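Lab notebook, bench 4. Still working through the backlog of constructs that have no structural model yet. Next entry is a single chain of 213 residues. Request: give me the structure tokens for it.
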Amino acid sequence: MKTAILTGFEKFGSYAVNPTKTLTQDLNGRILAEHRIHSMVFSAAPSQLKDCGKEIVEQLLSVHASVIISFGMASEAKGVRVEMRCVNWVENDRYCMPFENRTPIFSDIPIHDVRCVPLEQWDLKAASFRLSAMGMSFETSQDAGRFCCNALMFRVLRALEEKSQTIPFLFVHIPCTEEAIATISDFDRAQKTLIQQSDLPAVVESLLKSYHQ
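Model written out:
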């Protein structure tokens, strides 16, 4: 049986919960799409993610995982959104602490250096078809933001490079859930998309069926 590393984040800002944490915790140890799930949850603060790439790759090697799928929540996401690139830079005036804002993720490489996910390892058309059949929209993005999701994505890609690992990796943004916005009375429902927490395991299953090595 194959194994999969699944990662999510703790809550941040005024959100009541982070659905990616709930998802990863609920699936930890379960078997989905013929993969045993090994879950990891990280702080949603870029300054607390310094070792996340190494930790994820170490876990990958420890359990002989075949794939890594990381999830983050983005209120502007219109559906399941796959991030294609990330940048060596942190900048988020709303959520970052002053000392971590407008700083490089790594100081030993050029600022604004770019890393791209090798998407040739993924059949995203098949994933899009499966998700569409479940009534979920699918999109790809060239901008993962400059907050914790971008930071984790960059650190994982660099850690994989340093260990000469070609394991398929994907970073996926999902919209908010009702549970996440429970304490936000002015959430702009008219302009933003919500996703059901109960639908997220099916998203994971669809993605696990969509990669090849």
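Notes after review: Residues 148-162 form the longest helix (15 residues). Strands lie at 2-9, 31-32, 35-42, 67-73, 80-83, 85-87, 114-116, 138-141, 169-174. Flag for follow-up if needed.
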